[in-house]
Amino acid sequence: MPVLANAHRSSPRWLRGLCLWIAMLVVPAVLVAGASHQVGGSWWERTDPGPRRSLPTSRFYTIRSDLPPEETKRYADLLDAMHREYMRLMQGLRKRGRPHLDVFMFATQPDYLDTLRTRFGANGVGSGGTFFIGPRGSGLAYFTDRLPRSRIEHVIRHEGFHQIAHIFFDGDLPPWANEGLAEYFGEAVVVDGTVIEGQVTARSLALVRELIARDRVVPFAELLSRDLRTWNAAVSVGGAERQYLQSASMIQFLLWGESGGLSGNFSAYLRNLNEGRDSLSAFRNAFGATDARALADFERRWRAFVEEQKPGSFRVATERIQFMADGLLLLRERAVHPRSLEELRAALALADFEQEVGGPHTGATTLRASDAESFEIPIDHIQDKKRTPAFVWVNKGPDASSRKQESTPASSPPTKKRRGGASDSDGMDDQSSDPAAPSLKPPPLPELSTQNLRPRDIKISWSQDSEGRWRAQLRLK
């Protein structure tokens, strides 16, 4: 899929960044979703707020949307939270582009493609969303139909950065830094407006290590000076994942490696770029040297950082608890009501339940109920090894057991069932339902949360919409 990045410096200004369309984007921000005042017509006409009324806004964005109000607001809140993080990175830099932030949120892909083409002259084919810049306007656009929420939110965080970066760099941010930072923010986690950064996924870390082991790393001197044309040429011959993975990993190193000792230098690098320096001279001014020896040493230190890195426990926990909550709601629709984590796992495995998580550029991971690790939390460097994090299930209602049931280790064998349906070790009473057996009266949804997770424990908050459908929302505990 094509990837929008900053256009070559020799291109007209409106075209700079038009090549910046990456596979999936979303940038929503609306406090009240855009309910249209027209029933028919084009998407643009249907989302027109009407005479003497203005488009809905969030704190930082102006929005057109045909998504349900609660969905639009959820994406608006996410992007507003990320905006504060983007601006913290840009602190002290001057704005070089138009500061107005427009967002277009589509329910369906046909409306997304048609509106981009007819209204803005932009091509969204092959993408789930895009940050576009053209002669007839600019903005963030995405659609939600048939896309997992985790993918949509990843795109929001990723493409949201591109939109802010264009304001401060006017299309001149080098591709490695532009895409590396966008993917860095794409892999952040946002819960209750709190942004947790530096959360690398197990898959992306494994792939970066594989690049290093197979000697497929792009030499940093070359990556640093790659312009958009060279970057896109590599993408066209299948090098997209390699560039994104390495760039995002190097951003992780610059912001978190060596106890954060390089973050000040990286801020100086961005400041030099903001002032108009080219990538090599900006890096030389910020880090002291760009000769072959200095860059080779930089790359050696990055490799050592990757070797010691661990997948982020917090990020993995959020993905897996959402996976369990979504699976639980699917089972509820089928009148199947597990009474423990083990029963949930068994019922979802029987249903072949799986879910894709992660971003479109560094590769997605598929969580499967048949894999024991989908119900566990890995240990990273900030966790207390004496009080390991785990998922916790607590039944609610008059018949609920008072005991908590924690996730079991991956090495634990599947629990055998007694005739009453309860497991030998789950601590529940004999009237627990068989995970595959329908129940006539649905019990209350359980408390699903974590314990001992750093920096914060999380939980699932259950709610019902106006039509009685249950929804699962991730919250801080």
Quick overview:
The chain has helices at residues 43-46, 69-89, 109-120, 149-169, 175-186, 202-213, 220-225, 228-236, 240-260, 263-274, 279-287, 292-308, 313-333, 341-350, and strands at residues 4-5, 19-20, 62-65, 102-106, 129-134, 137-143, 189-191, 194-196, 354-358, 364-368, 390-394, 405-406, 447-451, 458-464, 470-476. By secondary structure, it is of the alpha+beta class.
Describe the structure.
The chain is α+β, with helices and mostly antiparallel strands and 477 residues long. It has three domains: 1-169, Glutaredoxin (3-Layer(aba) Sandwich), CATH 3.40.30.160; 200-309, no CATH class; 313-476, no CATH class. It has helices at residues 43-46, 69-89, 109-120, 149-169, 175-186, 202-213, 220-225, 228-236, 240-260, 263-274, 279-287, 292-308, 313-333, 341-350, and strands spanning 4-5, 19-20, 62-65, 102-106, 129-134, 137-143, 189-191, 194-196, 354-358, 364-368, 390-394, 405-406, 447-451, 458-464, 470-476. It has a four-stranded mixed beta sheet. Helix 9 crosses helix 10. The longest helix has 21 residues, at 69-89. The radius of gyration is 24 Å and the shape is globular. It starts with a strand and ends with a strand. Mean pLDDT is 84; it is low at 1-37 and 409-432.
Tags for this model:
15 strands; 477 residues; 3 domains; three-stranded antiparallel β-sheet; 14 helices; alpha+beta; disordered N terminus; 14% strand; Glutaredoxin
The parts where pLDDT drops under 50 for at least 5 residues are: 1-37, 409-432
Shape: globular
Mean pLDDT: 84
How do the helices and strands follow one another from N- to C-terminus? EEHEHEHEEHHEEHHHHHHHHHEEEEEEE
- What is the CATH third-level topology name of the largest domain? Glutaredoxin
Largest beta-sheet characterization: 4 strands, mixed
